[in-house]
C-alpha cells in the first residue's frame, strides 16, 4: 500500500514538473543530415555552424519555433540511409537539410522521395541528385556548370592545351565533374592525355602520379576531396612535378592547406563562396557574424547551409503551410533569392547562380574571380 | 626511367606494409589470435606521437619512443580487459572480441580526437628530396626499409635468443603445458601484446610521416593491408610478413602503373591476392605446413 502511495506521489511530481505545452505553438521540426565524422567531417562541421547561425537569426516560421535534429551520416552511404530513415520515421521531420556530398545525397534522396519529405542539399553538385525527383532540391549549382567553368579557366587563364585527370571512382561527385570537365575542355580544343583513378581513403598515389609525370600534361585536374587532394599534391611535389593543379569545390577545406603545406601553393579551384566575392547584403552580414563567433572566414558549406535554411523557410512562409506538396511548390517558386552565396533561382530543383574561383596563396585561400552562369 | 620510379614507389609502399605486418604476425604467431585491433592501436599510437610533437614540442624520436611506450601499455590493458577473460574460450570468441576492441578504439577516437584529420609533421631528416636524373626519392623511403630491417632483426633476436622469446615460442605450441612448467603465461602474453602494440605504433608513425595526415579511422586500411601481407607471407612468420608486405606493395603499384584503367580496383587486388593464397597455398610463402 505504501509503495502504491509512493508511486502515485512520484507520478504527481512528474506531472507537475513537466512544462505545459498547450499554450505555446507546436514547433516546426527540421532534420539536419550531415557528415559530422568520417572523411567529410570538416565540411559537415562547418555546415552545422552555418545552420546554427541561420537558426539563431531566424528562430521562428509562421509564428512557430523551429526545432532541429542533427544526425551524423559518418560520410558513409549505409549510415546515411539509416539516418535518413530515422529522421523520417522517428523524428517525423517536416523537411531535411542535407546531406552534403553527392554520394550521400544520392543515398538519401530515394528515401525522401518515398516518404514525400522534401530534402534540400546545400552542397551536392552531381546532376543525378535531383533528376526525375519531386522532393529533392539543392541550393548549389550543378557540375555541368562547374566543369565548364573549370575548363574555361584551364584553357583561357592557365593557357592549358593538354590535361590529365585523377578521378576518385568511389565518389559520384568526382566521377561526374571529371566527365563534364573532360567534355568542356575537349570542346574548347584541349586534349585529355591521361585519365587515372583512385578510391576515397587511398593514401598512396605515387603510381598514378609517376604515370602522369611521364605524360607531361599542361595541367592536372583533380576534383578531389581535401584529404586525397592534399596527399596528391604532396606526392606530386615529392616526385618533382611542377604541373599546375586545378580542383573543384571539394578542395575548400582548411585541412587542404594544413596537410598539403607548400605543395598546395598555387592550386586553383572552382567553388561556391568566398568572403571576398560576396555580392549581397545578407552575405556581408553573414560573414561579419560568422567571423565574430568563430573567428575565421566562413567556407562554402557553412554559407550554403545558411542559404538552404532560409530558402526552405521562405518557401514555408510563401505557402503558409507545412504540407509536403505545398513545400515542394514553395521551393520550386524560389526566384532571385538574395542568399549569402549570391542571388539564386531554382530551375528544375537546382540553383542557377555564380561560381567563384579561388587559389592557394601563401597558405591562404585567395579570391580570383566570380563567374556568372 | 618510369619503370624504375615505379619500382621505387612499390618498394616504399611495400616496406611500410611490411613494417605494420610484422607486429600483426608476431602476435598471431605466438597467441594464435588475429588481433584485428592492430590497425586501431596503430591509430592511437599516431595520435600519442602527434600530441607529443605538437603539444609538448618533443623532437620526433622522443615522440616516437614515448608513443611506443604508451601504446605498449595500451596493448597490455587491452589484453587484460578484453582477451584475458577469454583465454580458455574458443578461438573464435577472442577473434570477435578483437573486432569489438577495434570498433571501440575507432569510436573512442572519434569522440576524443574528433573527426577532422590532423596534419602530421614530417621531421627534416625524412623530408629530404633525393634525385638522380628523373628519379625522385624521399629520404623517408630509404629510411623505412632500414628501420624495418632493424626492427625485424631485433624481433628475431628477442624471439630466438632470449628467455622471454623462448617462453613465447613454447607458449605458441601449448599454453597448458607451459603453465605446468612454471611459466607465468599471463606475463608472457602481456609482454607479447606490449611488443606487438609498440611495433604497431612505430609502423603507424612512419606511415603517418609518409602520408602526413591522421584521423581516427586511419588504421582501418593499413591494418587490413597488413593482414593481407601477413597472410601472404605465412601468418605467424615475421620474415614472411616482410616478404608479404613488399610483394603486396609491389603488386598494387604495378597494377596502377601498367593498367591505369583498373587503378580503382587496387584494394580489390589485395583481397583477390588474399583469396588466391588461401586457396592455393593457405600456409603462405614462408609458412610451415600445418599437420592435420
Description:
The complex is a heterodimer of chains A (373) and B (292). Chain A is built from twelve helices and 16 strands. With 373 residues, chain A is an alpha/beta fold. Chain A folds into two domains: 28-141 and 278-353, Rossmann fold (3-Layer(aba) Sandwich); 144-271, Response regulator (Rossmann fold, 3-Layer(aba) Sandwich). In chain A, the strands form three sheets. Chain A has a seven-stranded mixed beta sheet with strand order 8-7-9-10-11-15-16, with helices on both faces. A six-stranded mixed beta sheet of chain A has the order 2-3-1-4-5-6, with helices on both faces. In chain A, strands 12-13-14 form a three-stranded antiparallel beta sheet. Chain B has one domain. Chain B has a two-stranded antiparallel ribbon. In chain B, strands 2-3 form a two-stranded antiparallel ribbon. Chain B has helices at 2-31, 38-54, 60-83, 91-113, 139-161, 163-173, 175-180, 185-210, 220-233, 238-258, 266-280; strands spanning 118-119, 129-132, 135-138, 213-214. In chain B, 50% of the residues are buried. In chain B, 72% of the residues lie in helices and 4% in strands. Chain B is mostly helical and 292 residues long. Chain A binds chain B through residues 36-39, 41-42, 44-45, 169-170, 194-199, 201-204, 206-208, 210-211, 213-214, 227, 230-231, 234, 238-240, 255, 258-259, 261, and chain B through 2, 5-6, 9-10, 12-13, 110, 114-119, 129, 131, 134, 136, 138, 210-213, 215-217, 220-221, 252-257, 260-261, 263-264, 266-267.
SSE blueprint:
The complex is a heterodimer of chains A (373) and B (292).
Chain A lengths: L1 H16 L10 E7 L6 H17 L2 E2 L2 E9 L4 H14 L4 E3 L4 H14 L3 E3 L14 E3 L4 H15 L4 E7 L3 H17 L2 E8 L7 H10 L3 E3 L4 H13 L6 E3 L6 H7 L7 E4 L9 H14 L5 H20 L4 H9 L4 E3 L2 E6 L2 E3 L2 E7 L2 E8 L2
Parallel strand pairs in A: 1-3, 1-4, 4-5, 5-6, 7-8, 7-9, 9-10, 10-11
Antiparallel strand pairs in A: 2-3, 11-15, 12-13, 13-14, 15-16
Helix pairs in contact in A: 2-11, 3-4, 5-6, 8-9, 11-12
Chain B lengths: L1 H30 L6 H17 L5 H24 L7 H23 L4 E2 L9 E4 L2 E4 H23 L1 H11 L1 H6 L4 H26 L2 E2 L5 H14 L4 H21 L7 H15 L12
Antiparallel strand pairs in B: 1-4, 2-3
Helix pairs in contact in B: 1-5, 1-8, 1-9, 1-10, 2-3, 2-4, 2-8, 2-9, 3-8, 5-6, 5-8, 6-8, 9-10, 9-11, 10-11
